[in-house]
Here is the input.
Amino acid sequence: MFYYPVGTVLAEAVTDGGVTLAPIRDVLADEFYTGALADAIRSPGSIPAGLAGWLLASASDIANALAVLVNALVSPFDGGLESWPGAVLGGIGGVLGALAGVVPGFGLFGFTAWQALCSTVASLALGLPGAYVLARFEFPGRRTLESLTAVPFVLPSIMVAVGFVAAFGVNGPLNRTLAALGLPTVELLFSLEIIIIAHAFYNAPLVTRIVAAAWESVDARAVETARSLGASPTRAFRDVVVPQLLPAVATGALLTFIFTFMSFPIVLALGGLEYATVEVWLYNRVGQLDIQEAAVLAVLETVISLGLTYAYLRYEAATSRGDRVGSPLDRDPLFRLDAKRVALAGYGVVVAVVFLLPIVSMLAASVTSPDGLTLRYYRFLLERGAEATSAQVSPTLAVRNSLLFGAGTLLVAVPMGVLLALASTREGRLARAVGVLSMAPFAVSGVVVGLGLLQTLVFGTTVLGRRIVVGGPLAIVAAHAVGAYPFVVRNVAPLLAGLDRRLVESARALGATRNRALLDIELPLVAPGIAAGAAFAFAISIGEFDSTVLLASASGSDTSLYTMPVAVERFLGKQTLGRPTAMGSVLLAVTAGAFIVIDRVGGRYRE
Amino acid sequence: MTDERVSRRAYLATAGTGIAMLAGCSSGGGDPGTEGETATDTPVTTGTPTATPESLSGTLTVATYSSWVEDEGAAGPWLKQTFEERYPDVTVEYVTPDGEVSHYVQRKQQGAPIDADMYVGLNVDQLITADSNLDTDLFDTPQLSNGRKVKDGLRFDPQGRAIPYDTGYISVVFDESEVPRPETFTDLTEPEWEDGLLAQNAQTAATGRAFLLWTIKEFGTDGYLDYWRDLQANGVTILDSWTESYSNAYMNGERPMVVSYSTDQVFANRYDYDMTRHQVAALNGQGYANPEGMARFADSDSPDLAAVFMDFMLTAEAQGEIAVRNVQFPAIPESEAALTEEFQTYAKVPDQPVTFTYDELQGNVEGWVEDWAREIAQ
Here is the structure.
């Protein structure tokens, strides 16, 4: 369901009559794609001269900018004292600009990597304090909040774009608040900044969830031992807790980087074509039916992502050999007044702006018409649910299908992910290879997966004169599970790797079978990771769009397999955002409810 | 393939129409309707349907874009219902594949069955894409009794396969309380209109493509990239679809100008929007005409039924409904279509419609769009 369809597309990157690397070389040597690297790829001999020229030029730029700054600093009276701060700021800006100019342009790939890096940093900055709050504090609604961290993942990107434009637009609530406070307003839309914030919206909850799961399995006794040996709380945190969290932080960062490297609808909707990434370009190639160039881009993306994964797995193998057992740290009450909690309240405000404001703005769009408040869009959903014709989408059917496919995905992806996690945490090269391959569904362009499914399963193949077309619910569940199981692997594997092997060994020595040891010792200890992975697997299924829409239309006129995100997309039309946002609000409500149920059920095995 | 495509459909829905006699248009390559007009050259019996209600039966599968069936008051459901009432033994089924026309191009390339009888919502560049990617014809040439009612200037297929059923004119819609009316293309690069314009990706959105072609018409193949560099320097924003740029960004007041349709005020009036934000500017007095067509698949199992449905879409009654519901101009002369008063009051026709012909676009359009996209994305 994955390797074969994708393989058929990727193979086009290296076939041109026969097998050839020319298409890949052409892309790498194209300045549009690789910028300054293109020259080097075309003629490696020119590298030293090019490098020297570049160093010289940038050194003189920086020197000039520094001279301007020093001049501004030492002669405050030149342009009058009151304009001095401005001159100094201008000088600093000049130096920063010259430094930034040192980084040569690396074309589309360079820009894509750069925005992914910025997005990763932003997601960590926004996600880590959340993990701290969820793992270390007790407060009413904590479990629910933890469940809800998976919600952003299911929101169709078009809905997120609608919410972001409404929230951060020139006339949005953020700017109105700033203006009311007498502060300058911000113009965020159609900029790199808004792309990064939206990427953080999607990925910071992922970081939070993965790191919180790891934090919950930090052994309290190790911290107590360190403290009793005289370590300060800070020191105990740095020496005992941080090393145990690092693999989880790195997992979150890796996933975020890969996702944002492959980012595409958000970039288009909030940044526009000027901020195109490789995946945007790939999508456009497919639209022009230039499948070969699309395949080359997909191969390069995959190589980069899997290379990062491999590097990460080496790191994970080297770091996580802790002696962890399940004796979690105690949680502190959240509501009390001290400096730490005031800082957390500030973090809460940022979270509210980044997460709540867009979602609330989206909900608001579903009950607002030009005439003011209205329920007419929800009434439309009910009416359409009752009387949709064959070609029209019925909201009720969409809700039912989404939940069914989500449940099916859980049943397939969770066992599959746990097994692969077990396989990949054994010692050795083979285990690392399994680990890397288990990430392949993340590392392959979503556009290419869609294209592969279309060409192989939806169009079908002729076997013995009969056309075999794969469609239907099982195909959709399989496609969702393929996209979802890597989440389970990456949530569970770091915890498994950190398990104290001696526990399993003692159990085996005391006569437990391999399976008994697995069920009674290992799985309960990694339960937080399994729960986190399951929630994301469900989220992936609910939010999945590309393969659902393709497979749902596999059998011609039978389109009754569409899901909630497909319905949102289908209701987008002329002049009004009411219908799609109403459908999006239903999606939000249904899945938030489902997450709370999953987490509660999963949580029973946790304590 | 992703939800970005959405916007393209939505956009397509709105694109495309025009009352207009394009006969007077500035297309250099001559009237596109002069060659190979199989449809109109064929002697036909006028005025009567080619089949009687009793003689027709079966299922007609019509492929189209999704807003044709999903939009509020969309034309699709009305056509289905009315046609089925007229021919009680016929069932009309719509299918809305995600890839639109290119879905069928890919099917044909892969040797998969087409599974549909006709396509509604085809424009000239999609037809060129189909022709240039396939060795055999995706569409054939139907014999229509009402075919000759279509205004000559709208016919965009030299081989007469695609029959226009409506048309639109690309224009700039602006907020007169924020910016002066842009009169020329050069105005859009002036400081007064700085950071003002929302346009669409010419690779994915029909409005975006039409606006790009319009600038090529104005500045030539040697000059259009320079013009776009100036537009970029003046802060143009290029989003993927008409829906994103219009419904989401423009309607939220993000920018004072958006590339849209000359029929914009029909919507604005229908939903009681403030007209100051729905002024239509015809740059240089022009508008780029973008007819939408229908075509019958060569592999159709019910070719006769498809032809009767196509004929039906060109009747005065259906032309009026399609124009009003799709907010585009009819393909038959306006005086013959049953149009509402609201539509006649608010739909504007540019003084000088311009467009490229099939022959002018063939072999060129892909390169133009590619060069443009590389210019923008760097």
Q: What stands out?
A: The first strand of chain A starts at residue 15 and ends at 16.
